Amino acid sequence: MRRPKVLTIAGSDTSAGAGIQADLMTLADFNAEGKTVVTALTAQTPNAVFAVEPVGNRILQEQLSAVKHIALRGIKIGLIVAPAQVAIIANFIRQLRQKTAAELWVVLDPVLNASAGSQLQLPGTLEAIQSQLLPLVDVITPNLDEAEVLTGLRPTAPNDRVQAAMQIQRMGPGSVVIKGGHDTAGHCLDYGLCGQNHYWLQSPRQAVSNSHGTGCRFSSAIAALLARDYPLKDALTLAKAYINHSLALAKDSPEANLPHPGWPENIELFPRALPNALQNPEPLELPPGPGFAPCKTKPLGLYPVVDSVDWITRLIPLAVKTLQIRLKHAGPDELRQQLTEAIALCRENEVQLFINDHWQLAIELDAYGVHLGQEDLLKADLSAIARAGLRLGVSTHGEYEMMLAHSLKPSYMAFGAIFDTKTKDMSGQLQGTERLGRYVRLIKNCPQVAIGGINADNLDSVLATGIESVAVVSAITEAEDVRARVKVFQSRLEGLTC
Ligand SMILES: Cc1ncc(COP(=O)(O)OP(=O)(O)O)c(N)n1
Ligand SMILES: Cc1ncsc1CCOP(=O)(O)O
Ligand SMILES: [Mg+2]
After folding, report:
1. Tell me, what CATH number does 345's domain have?
2. Ligand closest to CA 392
3. Is 416 close to ligand 1, i.e. is its CB under 6 Å away?
4. Which of 423, 430, 459 to mutate to test the pocket of ligand 2 (most atoms within 8 A of CB)?
5. What pairing do the DSSP bridges indicate for beta strands 187-194 and 197-204?
6. Which structural domain, as residue segments, surrounds residue 334?
7. Ligand nearest to the CA of 391
8. Domain count, the chain
9. Does 320 lie in the same domain as 240?
10. Lining residues, ligand 2, CB within 6 Å
11. pLDDT average, residue stretch 180-204
12. Same domain, 229 and 312
């Protein structure tokens, strides 16, 4: 699916800074093909709304009928001005879902109050949205004011934000994103309650005189990304980076619209991802001191991940210079023995050996480095790992986890799983080569490794992304001729390794 089709159901904004006009430009920036159904005509500038005129029910219905045969992957809903419109739109979504088994993401930006401050809706619209639309919505994106209207509580503190999101979730939406753009603190803290999971994104506050249309852009970006099969946490991260970029480029003029800056590619403008703590989220702190030691070989090149000292003994004579030992089932004695042998063997042969998971033993046995997954990252003593001079490699599966890992300045970051793999259940976490290419362009100041389903047949498509190191299990351990297979990888990676 190159350009998924996404429908925006929203109001027209004469200034084109918000509404259906901003939605279309945002959808285009995220490679989605926009379709439109207009709910209302408005006459407005970025600072004032002069008039709002709902479209009649008949033409609203006709517009929806005209798009109902399109294979939509997403719907973004913005301004709805009358209770009858809510009923028509809710009916349309129900019918569409009955008609097709394909996934259809519905994102609602509950425009309950224009940023210019006027009342845009007829009486009863809010109640109709709550009772008829919210049960059909996958993601709702209220700002603090809208969350207050929906819950009766202004969720200023992080824990209040969690409680408010849970209250809104009980009204029907699968996921609730409370935006911190109206925070008074020095940073904006966005909170996503995605199903049962909690995500926090923090960005420095940018003082701009006109933030008209940020909500429209944010929700349209999310709809486009969900339609492109992005998990919601990654869609939030990218949508926030998009808003941050737009605000950073804003002209200091109250009349100028915020720009539509294209797919986010500047890491400096990405939000910081915080660990999934329920209350009072705190950033993962960089360990004090010089941080994690750099890897000696850059790039890492061919990086086999193996489950025994025997494999290490077989691979060292083949000039493999980076290895990982990944022991999932060994008891404590066997674990210690295997790790001790592996570390000694690799040290003798100047091979960089990473220990998967067992960071305490890795420190105790003075290993070269450790590789940690996201869960382990939150539990491990990162300062102890850095103090001991060990390298740290971190697994990431998408933009949210990348931002979490990036703030720690690890020795390398792994991106996976690129393809389906039999070695580990990675369902729901496949990245593909298009996303891998974006990661390579985004993360410039940290060595990168791709992992998951990489083999001799798809290696060229992986390397075409610009990645210079690949971690593999079965491509090596299940090869009929291991020596020949290692040579294939080494020769293709040749010239990339130094
Ligand atoms: C280089 C590399 N990348 C990713 C992984 C996966 O590690 P993790 O997320 O800790 O999962 P398990 O390997 O423990 O199942 C890796 N091992 N190596
Ligand atoms: C450990 C791991 N982490 C992400 S994918 C993966 C398995 C990679 O194995 P293979 O190279 O056989 O696909
Ligand atoms: Mg692990």
Report:
1. 3.20.20.70
2. 1
3. yes
4. 423
5. antiparallel
6. 302-493
7. 1
8. 2
9. no
10. 416-417, 421, 423-424, 426, 451-454, 472-475
11. 90
12. no
Q: Is there an atom of ligand 1 within 6 Å of 429 CB?
A: no
Both 19 and 108 in one domain: the answer is yes
295 is a domain residue: no
In 187-315, alpha helices (H): 214-227, 232-248, 309-315
Q: Which residues sit in the known binding site?
A: 324-328, 356-357, 376, 395, 421-424, 453, 473-474
What is the interface pTM, i.e. ipTM, of the complex? 0.97
Q: Tell me which long-range contacts 190-197 makes (C-beta under 8 A, separation of at least 24).
A: 190/236, 190/240, 190/271, 191/158, 191/161, 191/162, 191/165, 192/232, 192/233, 192/236, 193/162, 193/165, 193/166, 193/169, 194/232, 194/233, 197/233, 197/276
Residue 365 lies inside a defined structural domain of this protein: yes
Predicted TM-score (pTM) of this structure = 0.95
- 412-435: pLDDT as tens digits: 999 999 999 999 999 989 999 999
Residue 328 covered by a domain: yes
One-letter identity of residue 169: Q
Same domain, 266 and 315: no
Cα of 451 from ligand 1 centre, angstroms: 8
Nearest CA to ligand 2 atom 8: 452
Q: Which DSSP symbol is given to 420?
A: -
What is the CATH classification number for the domain harbouring 27? 3.40.1190.20
> Does 280 fall in a domain?
no
Do 192 and 309 fall into the same domain?
Answer: no
CA of 416 to the centre of ligand 1 (A): 9
Residue 117 has pLDDT above 50, yes or no: no
pLDDT at 181 over 90: no
Neighbours of 160 (CB within 10 A): 18
Ligand 1 binding pocket includes 449 (Cβ within 6 Å):
yes
